[in-house]
Amino acid sequence: MYINPNQLQTIVLFLTCATLLSVTIGVLINQSILPLKSLMAYSEAQLQFIKVWVNIALFIGVIIPIILLIFLRIQPIQSRFLSYYLIVVFVQLASEIVFSRWLCKSVVVIIGTIYTGFRIWQLWSGIHATIYSQPWLSLLWLVLIFWIANIVMLLTMAFPSIFPESETGTHADV
Questions:
Q1: Closest CA to 21 of 150, 153, 105, 112
Q2: What is the DSSP track for 105-170?
Q3: 104 phi and psi, to 5 degrees?
């Protein structure tokens, strides 16, 4: 049985599970049950990188898909796929804002990882769901490659910043 990440039922189930998991992890961090830092400890160089990375993420991960949606809106499969993709992106951003204020700032690392994994699955499935003309397909591959790079960044830089044993010199808490 194939579960399609670009069907409404799958997305609702994912959003529900991701929210419950994010809240649970945030509460466990706050109560010092889960031994993760409540703040991310980045060096100044890492902070500068994160600022640039966030701008790239907004452009590649949000602006490009919005442009694609505008240009592909008359094609139902592509339009639905891009709409679902953007819904997941906006729920992620809302979750990161709300939960980082309500629970702890480091929960954005968990949220980002969960949602990026789902987004990669969504894009892979969406790219293979129909035929795109070359410029649109190239842009979709760019978005997919960016999110794969984002997972690498989360695992190599963001996660170590919330581990208690991650002491790498001078840190600025975010």
A1: 112
A2: TTHHHHHHHHHHHHHHHHHHHHHHHS---HHHHHHHHHHHHHHHHHHHHIIIIIHHHHSTT---SS
A3: -160, 155
Nearest CA-CA partner of 139 in 72, 42, 39, 48: 72
pLDDT exceeds 90 at position 170: no
Residue with tokens 């039922």, as numbered in its chain:
9
Residue 81 has a pLDDT of: 94
Q: Which of the four pLDDT bands, split at 50, 70 and 90, describes residue 125?
A: very high
Rounded percentage of the chain residues whose pLDDT exceeds 90 = 84
Q: How far apart are CA 110 and CA 113, in angstroms?
A: 5
Amino acid, single-letter form, for residue 134: Q
What interhelical angle do 107-129 and 8-30 show, nearest 10? 170
The residue behind tokens 């997305």 is 11
* Pairwise CA distance, residues 119 & 154, whole Å: 14
Per residue in 26-67, pLDDT tens?
999 999 999 999 999 899 999 999 999 999 999 999 999 999
